[in-house]
Design a protein that fits this description.
By secondary structure, the protein is mainly α. About 80% of the residues lie in helices and about 0% in strands. Helix 1 (about 1-55) runs antiparallel to helix 2 (about 60-75), helix 1 (about 1-55) runs parallel beside helix 3 (about 80-100) and helix 2 (about 60-75) packs antiparallel against helix 3 (about 80-100).
Length: about 180
């Protein structure tokens, strides 16, 4: 009888530990996503100032500026990781285009406001990159716990669901922008 009670107590303690580990991992994923969200929002907040600085020099690039405005509007209404990842990829492409085109405007590059904003955007891009990596590492660890025995049993009992990785979905976003200084 005591052996049965001891086995039952050990089993309950094991389930509690596995459950708490899964909850902890899920919260870490949520925190990691929040960090990405904060950095992406920071970038979207910097963009209007950046666009206004660049507009005066690049008047023929109005389509690019309209695209940025559209992306900012879409960002505000999106909620899922997939939607935000897609918008982030699109915005990264547009920003790469602006940075590449700005090479053709020496007086823009000499503008201190443009330089400061460019540096802020570069720093933000670095933070976004780090946050994405941290998020994906957290998601991978969480999803692994959901798949591995014996935590997979506890995960299915308490309805834990896997999370999506933050991925670059288009091949264009993976390419470097070619900048030609011979123009």
């Amino acid at each position: 009888m005591w052996i049965a009670i001891a086995v039952l107590v050990i089993l309950v303690i094991g389930i509690i530990l596995l459950y708490n580990g899964l909850v902890s991992s899920r919260l870490k994923v949520d925190n990691a996503w929040s960090q990405i969200d904060v950095q992406l929002q920071r970038r979207f907040d910097l963009i209007p100032n950046f666009v206004e600085t660049v507009k005066g020099y690049m008047t023929h690039e109005s389509e690019t500026f309209e695209k940025i405005t559209s992306l900012r509007t879409s960002w505000a209404s999106s909620s899922s990781v997939g939607e935000k990842a897609k918008l982030d990829n699109e915005l990264s492409g547009v920003l790469k285009t602006i940075m590449a085109v700005s090479e053709n405007y020496p007086e823009l590059k000499a503008n201190s406001n443009f330089s400061e904003l460019s540096e802020e955007l570069r720093n933000t891009e670095n933070k976004i990159s780090f946050s994405r990596q941290f998020y994906n590492d957290s998601v991978t660890m969480y999803n692994s716990k959901l798949a591995l025995f014996p935590s997979n049993i506890v995960a299915s009992l308490f309805n834990f669901k896997p999370r999506d990785l933050f991925v670059v979905e288009n091949d264009e976003a993976r390419k470097n922008v070619k900048v030609d200084f011979n123009k």
